[in-house]
Fold each of these.
Amino acid sequence: MYLRCEDLSYAYSSDSPPVFRGVNLLLNGPGFYALFGLSGVGKSTLARLLTNRYGGRDAGMDGAMSGKIQTDLQTILYAHDSERLPGWVSIERHLYGVVPSKNHGLLKQLIREYGMKDVVHQRFSSLSMGQKNRVNLIRYLLQDWDMLITDEVLANVDEPTRYTILSSIKTLFPNRIVLYISHNAIEVVRFSKGIFVLPQTFRVSAGLIQIQGLDQLPDAIPDEQTVQTRLYGLLKAAGTGAEAA
Amino acid sequence: MNGLLGRLFQFSAIYGCFVGLLWLAKYGMGFSDYLIPSPAEFLHVIREDGPDYVIYSLNTLGVAVYGHIIAILLASLIAVIGSLKSTMGVVTRVAAYNLQAYPIVAVSPIIFIFLGDGLASRLLIASLICYFPLLLSLLGIFSQPVEDVEHFFVETGRINHRLRLAIRLFENLDKLLTVLTGTATLAMVGTIVAEFLAATAGIGHAIKIALYQDNLARILLALMLIGICSSFYLAVIEMLGRIFSRVLQKG
């Protein structure tokens, strides 16, 4: 179970500067990984690129790409925070319609655990931003996937609920790969097994910096000093591209 | 109901201003009753010809409604075909964009030659006049991706043409309602133009006769009734659109 990128570069068109270049990335084996970087460094573009090579799906990636992506994964899904559910059915009806029947038990559990039980009968448009993101995440989690890329899918969700959700993802899907994209540096440091940082260097990112995460689990919470040290390294890498992290 | 009253009020205000200005010009500049009828003569025409003109107007409204419905069905069908990514879809889109540039009114004499001056010609011209704006709007709606909603279905391989169209239609309901309302006016215009050109019935035909008689009072009466019928039809479409939208939103 792996996904490898070698010397990956991408530009929106052949005559525009690259969004990123020289990206090498190896996700080897299942686990919770994170892709971190400041706004505009190309995290979402990289994520879309990783999914787009499957079956020629149209994700708007018609720019100039070079480098190689190799994997033995069958299904890579990409979820992002701007997604909406169809407005003509209730959330519950939609979820039970798109989640495979073998996962309906788990669906019920996630609706309860993610605090969606009281609003699941409503339409998507009537939810708060945080609730919308949680519903969207639930439907992705319960598909058949080998790797799930989640792009800011917990935006506007309160911190305790985010921690509950991240812990549950790690507990429920230990044999799959999750690539978590977030601007929340603390939770990236705490929950990730490996962190890939797209640094902001002269506006064009050059390669990825890999940092070891703390891989926090409900029964193994790291001490604050370790979190702070790792957090400093992560932010330094993201801002200056310093490998010292 | 508020929509209908609102539309009637708006039309009455505009129509009142228009007639008021005519009478201001008449009495200000001393025009004869032959050129601009006096208020008394106008009231007399309303009493004398009102009932017949109401029937003519309802006849026109009926043809316009049928023509509009035919245009909606036809435009929906062609837009669905045009939204396909196949060669057939591309050819349909290209044909639609090119044909719409031609003024349909110019084709109407051919329609009258082939179909005569009966109901079929009026219906066809009314349909054709509102068909192309409807088609272009529907093609635009059907070919514009709603990435935020479609993304999940694309990712999980569930997307199909029917689902894609359903999403795009639902997300553009307001735009569609505006287009339907706009083309309803065009359907009325098309029917009246057809009647004015060669038909033997309807308010357009009555206007043509009044024009030959230089009877402005009858023309003013016809304009008033056309305005009332149009307001009524537009208000009904808006009301149906609101109900439909509410049912879909709330389930």
Amino acid sequence: MSKYLVNKFLYTIDREPELVERYRNDPAGTVAWWEKERANQLLHCAGGEASTWLSFTGSERRALSEHDHVALFGMGAHPFLTLTLWIAMFERDYAEPLAMQRDYAARLARFSLPYPDIAT
Amino acid sequence: MARLVAILATTHHPFYYRTSRLPPGQAPPFAAEWVRKVESYRQTLTRARPDVLVMVGSDHFHQLWLDNMPQFLVGKAPFYDANYYNEEREFGLPRLLLKGHEELSAYILRGGIDAGFDLAFSNELRVDHSITCPIFTVRPQNDLPVVPIYTNIFAPPLPRPERFVRLGRTLRELIDAWPSDLRVAAIGTGHLSLELGGPRQFGDHGPDPEFDARAVQWIADGDIDGCLAGVTLDSLHEPGNATHGFMDFMLMMGMAGCNKADYADSLDLFHTMEAYFTWYPNGVDA
């Protein structure tokens, strides 16, 4: 499990409007590009400092590539990060206010307490 | 010495700003009562005539990230830009610029560290809606210098509830002993039961109305012991997966001591309960 890296993906995509659109329109391509070019970037260091060891597991790569928020929840991805990015990408597709958020919740109905651990 | 003239503990609801500005024909049915309650609550701060605000909130993965996550952080800067692109996008919140009060920030950092809290600090902090929501609700003129204090209620491992209460007590002792003639108000924001990104989110009420009722009573009564007996890091998962924000209320209870709130109000909204509390530690007319 690399929950941290999944969270880092959600966090960094959400911060850049053009990446939000890119991930909405081409999830698999965006995940592949991000893992190759961005996954190891140290976010708060100047210049080109980078880590050398971060990569997704197969199930993480698949869940992100398929916009599968239910699988991400099951893996313990931080639910606030997933929700925020999903609202940015998909709220526009629903006619009624909060309809997207309620549909998002309904798809998670099989989960009961305790929820998957989100500690990283 | 400085005078702590008011302590406010409230929920922060990022939809208030946009909802309160909708024309009557477009506003949802609950908007008028919400605005009325907020405007009434605003008076509890206004009447205290503060000179400076100590503001407790929690960064929502904006500037603080998992590569370097502080548990408690104090801003020490002459200014704080505020609100982020995704808050503009999702909530319609405008960008703000808040003034800082570096002398009080430095004093709280020194005193807090000496009191056993290894506080992190930031000299360039962009605060988010946990700090700006109460500016919009209780000080919309945004005319006072602030000291922002961030707590980690978001990224486990979290400090335990007792630690939040103790930090509140320590902040109270520090503010009471601050050698200044300024009038200080403290404002902290958190949540009652709340679910975000889980199966119980965005229901007709908060995810756990029974917890909300107990929580409102604990706060209104200043029942810190009852609250600590009823809340643990583990138990806070049960009312909703974002309910650890309640620990910011517990911090403010620690600051207020075991005293009944001088003002207590609440509002049952879709998906969450709003709550508004004020204490006057030195009397209403201090």
